[in-house]
Amino acid sequence: MRDVAVIDRENLILSLAEGKRVLDLGAADNLHIDEKMQNDEWLHEKICRAASCCVGIDNDEECVQRLRERGYHIRVANVEDLDLQEVFDVIVAGELIEHVFNVGRFLDSVRKHLAPEGILIITTPSVFSLRARPGLLRPFMRKRTMNPTHVARYCQTTLRQLLVLRGFEIIRQGFCPSRSTSLLKAIFRRVAYRLFPEWAETLFVVCRDRRP
To answer: 5-209 has which fold?
Structure first.
């Protein structure tokens, strides 16, 4: 069996954010945001509780304004051109990089805001996930279409190579299964992803700047 990390996405991020200064990119997560807040499913809120301080960034001005009125420290900005005049121990880019047009500018922008020994956490849909590939199980799965706001798709190798070429050191890499309310699905995923971790829905990378 291959030694590849398969870990819950939320647990991964919150464990690394604990007690740290955190910058959360794409924080507004405006799809069903009110429902997520009501059900305590909004990741940014959980990061705020775990971190010593947390700043959110999003480009949805209307959503950001509503969240600021509720007391959240969220700013409107372009992640490819950040200039916050401060640095952070942890920068979270959850389900974001697949929306970014100029990834080089994005990573350079992130680098400017990393504290010494700071880390960047990236999670993104895996192009080799079971959901993304056709096969015998496909007819039995809920039909999914490509998100029209995605401009790129990544696998573990391409994301690692991209980060290394842009001057980052990979600390940890692996996969995150989606959570399921169905016991049968949960059992299937636990067994399948232990054997084939790349089938999991999301891949993650934890890295840091290795440039002097």
So the answer is: Rossmann fold (3.40.50)
